[in-house]
Amino acid sequence: MTTTVAKPSRVTWVRRNLFRTPLDGILTIVFGSLGLYVIFRGVLFVASGFVNGRWQIIDDNLKLLMVGLWPVQNLIRIGVSVAVLALWAGVIGGVIAGRQKRRGTSSIEGLTAMQRASDLTRRFGLVTATLLLLLSLTDTAGPWIMVLSAFVAGVIGRVIGGWIGVRFLPIWVSRLFTVVMVAVPIGVFLYLTSPWLPDPLPAARSSEPSAWPLAEWEGFMFNLTSAAAGIVLSFPIGLLLALGRRSKLRLLQGISIVYIEFVRGAPLYVLLLMANVSLEFFVPEALAPSRVVRAIVTFTLFTAAYIAEIVRGGLQSVPVGQEEAGKALGLTPTKQMRLIVLPQALRNVIPAQIGQFISLFKDTTLAGLALGILDLLAGATAITQQPDFRGQGLIIEALVFVGFLFWVGSFTMSRESQRLEKKLGVGTR
Amino acid sequence: MKIIKLMAVFTALMLILVACTSDADTTTTAAADAGSDTTAAPVEEDTGSLLDEVIARGELKCGTRDALTGFAVLTADGEHVGFDSDFCRVIAAAVLGDADAVDHVDLETADRFTALQSGQVDVLSRNTTWTASRDGSEGATFLTVTYYDGQGMMASADSGYASINDMNGAIVCVAKGTTTEGNAATVSERLGLGWEVRPFDDNALIQEAFDAGQCDGWSADSSALTGIRADQPAGPDSVVILPEVFSKEPLAPLVLDGDSDWAQAVDWAILATITAEEWGITSANVDTFLTSDDTNIVKFLGGEFEDGDGNVAVFDPGLGLPADFAYQVIKQVGNYGEIFDRHLTPLGLERGVNALWVDGGLMYSPPYR
Amino acid sequence: MAASPSPPKLTSSMTTPTPEQRVPFWRNVSFLKWLFQLVVFAIVAAVAIWLYNNFRNNTAESGIPTNFNFLTNPASFDIPGADFAPTERFQNAFVIGVLNTIRVSIVGIILATILGILIGIGRLSKNWVVRKISTVYVEIIRNLPLLVIMTFTFLGVVLQLLPRIENSWTPLDLLVISNRGIGVPWYQDTSGLALFLVLLVGLIGWWLIARWRHRVSDRTGQPSHGGLIGGAFFLLVLVVGWLLLGASFTTPVVDGRQIAGGIRVDPSFFAVLIALVIYTASHIAEIVRGSIQAVPAGQGEAASALALSGFQRLWNVVLPQAMRIAIPPLGNQYLNLIKNSSLGAGFAYFELTNVTQVTVGNGSPAVPAFFLALVFYIALSLITSAFVNLANRRFKLVER
Questions:
Q1: Across A51-101, where does the E strand assignment appear?
Q2: Taking the model in full, what pTM does it have?
Q3: A369, A378 in Cβ contact below 8 A?
Q4: Contacts of B205 in chain C (CB under 8 A)
Q5: 3-state secondary structure of B102
């Protein structure tokens, strides 16, 4: 017979948690009143901003903060690209979920729709609310259409992916599928930046192409895409460095160690400043890169060293017996690494990799300061100097907005990472 | 076997290092000995002049900035408007025949020189002061001065300062990486004022610090200060520009060392605006001067004239520019006075030392013949 | 009965491969490994040489120097808050930059560790209010970019919150707080060396007394109070030193637009320090929380069984073990703090990066100057890593 502990009454709860000892009581009173005061002032700040028009600065400049100086009518390509990427992400999510269902490791099987809905709300509610807030600040229908089409595309992709994931496909089909999945983001990138590909709507086909050259990516788009590009491009380099550091060949080890320790000892801000003034000296004139390219190259080379250390940790976490088993099966070293060690190693350090991505995402603000790119933070500082808004101390509002956007992104990603960690059982097996 | 391998590797290393550093040593030691780097071997590279490259490209890459009232401002339509921006257009009109064939590249103060050095821009028209060290260690060749400026100081109107000598122990804010930093420090030493000079990355931060009272004075080129004063949130009368001008700041466009064809072409494009004003040629009346009685003017505008033998000819001094470059410049952009009046006179800046030499100023162009 | 055959004698022809047994070199693993390394080295060297050649060509055309001679040129800029004249050399400016970086790093590390430990403990407190406030602090600050925090502390706190010099706050008539700096009372007419010696004597005395008291306590079982008695001695040394050195304190006063007397804390230093401390403390709090939770629960239970109070349990049993676990990630955070101090360059604090930027802006060649700055940062990182590794080795559990 099990005994259930009675839920403590309210009074008991207050006594136990807030006033356990006299000192405790004092702490409660002091910090409690401090906390209430801060909350009160915060709510007052946000609400009164709507009343006396202090948030107008964000309202007017939302497009500038999000995508920089690109003309409004040329944002169609972004809309199409976002929808395609949402479809792609949906398919990937669906395939993963389908595979899990097939293998029986699914965490969503057997949940009712209500439970699924509440789980999704808890995970993505914050991001959705922020998106709705941003959309409410826009004046045109364009962003609404973009977000809705992305949502629809994502759902469709999820359904398709779920259908694909559950089935056993022939090898050549799954290989083709992988190739297509890798090609889609590259294709989207090319579509965004090349003026030779046609515009989606006939009305937009004017003499001026609406392509968005990489050199002009600004605003929050710059932060998002340079972080994504940085982490994706740095991964192969980091992997090679980690393998090199572990190899028995002294020279490879030496080169890897020198690179990793050199880059890890340098501040990212100084590297960006260096890239700004000296990258052009090291490449021939024809290749002189734009500021955005310089930023992305620096992010890539910087993150590669950290990824190398993370992957090295992952490789060390795989028991030596796995490699020996591979040897016993007669696999070549390359096959051992590819089929046995690397999958386990990389899976073990997924949370650390996500942490590195979050860190890079936040560090993209440095590119704004170092290279003069008009990213979200630099844009926020700049708009406070506009004729309509100067001299009113609106920098606080601008910084709160910027901080909020970054916070929502980082917080959601780190919560997802924690959830993934729990699900993978990292560290418990 | 191991020893042999090691020796082979080391020998290879040595050979590579020796091959590469031998040339580097001679160049760097020559530079160090010579002191001034303009005398270090004029590198006879077989790359051709930037002039040909720009003509082939069909577009001029002009280094500028995006937010200095009167000199270069990026408008909401994406256009660059200002005194320096107009001189970019002058060069494009001269070299390419089209004043709008310009790619205005916005540069931060800190990387304007490296952008020029690396070839990211062909010419820098960005209110840059001509100094000896920039000629030397930055590898710059400065062209005709377009604006003779000086460094001034702006203070809040209620600070009670009437001259910089009143500013004992004051905090002076400047832009980072400019001559204003060094000048302010030098003046402070010389007059024993004990200033604390704080450099910031961009004007937005200086504006914030100035508004909050952290800066007693904001020092920059007088021309820039006039524009900044006009933009003050509390109105132009909330600040006062102190009377002293404490350094010479001749602002000129610049190109990279080692390409005299390009430098001369750009130089004469700029001089054309001054020559035009000397003759009274404006963008409105330039067509009437094409048939002037003065053959010097006709030659200048690239018109046809009768030479000594009675043949119809067009004057080409061999600069590599089209014969009618001056006509294009004046027609599409205007003469020096027009450019000045368009952008700087509305700010309240007077011609002063920037008037023509016949009016007591310093604007003087060599004869075009 | 046959005798067991004797093992065959090992002749040299059995150990050295005969020509037809020698593996051909294209399949010989050791040769292949060596060849692979050579190829990689050749590729890396080729890339490096290509980069270097580009660099030489691009700089030779315009005659820009690529050596370190610029260091002996006069700086022609001024460093606020330091005894530096524009006629001094660039290398002196660099030294001041490094000292400023070290200054903000050390103060930042100390303050961030204290704040981080407090908040980390707070996250595990039984008091609901303290727990929630700590959690909210960590979850908010940890997910913000440092640059946003630093922009806020500089533009928001220093420039807007702190008053103008005319209206500066003077609490207790001892401090002067304004947005130009914070005046703190300080020794007057004392050379830095004398002050440093007094501090050194005091600290060494504290440590020696603490050790003596601990030995006494081990012998007699009485509480040692080593920290308290040592601290009292330290204060005594400070007072005696102050009296010996002239006993003159200056308090800051507002003199026109300046702060005369005392010592002035640079407002940029203040902004950078606050931002670094707030940000790093949130990370340290997570590390401390994780390491306290990693201490086996039995330790805490045993301490309770010995009737130790909550504070004693934390201070004497749990924290020491937790700190042992926390040293490597803490060291990582310290390295991050040192590297993040470079952001002060955007806010007029003259640490190393700012000095380098200003040096380059005043006509020095960019590549050697930044290379020098990078070398300094890497050296600082390596030194700090060495210290952390030393501490780690000293405190870690020696396992069988």
A1: none
A2: 0.82
A3: yes
A4: 155, 346-347
A5: strand
Domain that includes residue A354, residue range: 217-429
Tokens of A206: 């004017």
Structure tokens at B182: 């060094």
Pairing of strands B171-175, B217-221: parallel
**B105 has a pLDDT exceeding 90:** no
Token duo for residue A428: 């418990």
B324 touches A at CB < 8 Å: no
Residue-level pLDDT at B19: 47
Q: In this structure, is residue A276 part of a structural domain? A: yes
The answer to whether C260 touches C96, Cβ cutoff 8 Å, is: no
The neighbours of chain A, by the rule of 3 or more Cβ pairs under 8 Å, are: B, C
Nearest to B131 by CA among B193, B85, B180: B180
Confirm whether A357 is domain-assigned.
Answer: yes
What are the residues facing C228 on neighbouring strands?
Answer: none
Question: Going by C-beta distance under 8 Å and a sequence separation of 6 or more, which residues neighbour residue A331?
Answer: A339, A340
Residues 6+ apart with CB under 8 A from A355: A414, A417
Hey, is the C-beta of A384 within 8 angstroms of any chain B C-beta?
yes
Question: To the nearest whole angstrom, how far is the Cα of A143 from the nearest Cα of chain B?
Answer: 21
Does residue C183 sit in helix, strand or coil?
Answer: strand
C204-208 long-range Cβ contacts below 8 angstroms, 24+ apart: C205/C230, C205/C233, C205/C234, C205/C237, C206/C230, C206/C231, C206/C233, C206/C234
Same domain, A190 and A314: no
Q: Are residues A420 and A283 in the same domain?
A: yes
Q: Are B115 and B105 in contact (CB under 8 A)?
A: yes
Which residues touch B268 (CB under 8 Å, ≥6 apart)?
B94, B319, B321, B325, B368
Please judge whether C61 and B45 are an interchain contact, meaning their C-beta atoms are less than 8 angstroms apart. Answer: yes
Task: With a cut of 80, say whether residue A47 has pLDDT above it.
Answer: yes
Please tell me the distance from the alpha carbon of residue A137 to that of residue A401, in angstroms, as a whole number: 12
Give the least confident one: A66-75, A333-342, A368-377, B235-244. Answer: A66-75
**Domain match, A169 and A308 both:** no
Q: How far apart are CA C275 and CA C349, in angstroms?
A: 13
Residues A179 and A230 in one domain: no
CA–CA–CA angle A74, A399, A388 (5° rounding): 65
Check C346 against A369: CB less than 8 A apart: yes
Residue C235 to chain A, least CA–CA distance (Å): 28
Task: Using alpha carbons, select from A100, A22, A181, A177 the residue that is nearest to residue A424.
Answer: A100
What three-state secondary structure class fits A217? coil
- B319 DSSP assignment: S
What amino acid occupies position B272?
Answer: A
- The interface predicted TM-score of the complex, written ipTM, equals 0.86
Cα dist from C251 to B98, B189, C175, C257, C287, whole Å: 67, 27, 7, 16, 40
Q: Could you say which DSSP state residue B276 is in?
A: H
Of A201, A236, A270, the last residue of a domain is A201
Measure Cα distances from B283 to A366, B331, B360 in Å: 46, 5, 24
**Cβ within 8 Å, pair C377-A265:** yes
Residues A255 and A396 placed together within one structural domain of the fold: yes
Give CA torsion, residues C135, C138, C144, C148, to 10 deg: 120
B277 and B225 both lie in a single domain? no
Question: Regarding predicted confidence, which is higher, B86 or C194?
Answer: B86
Asked whether B179 and B247 are in contact (CB, 8 A), the reply is yes
Instruction: Report how many domains make up chain C.
Output: 1
Owning domain of residue B348: 48-146+252-284+322-369
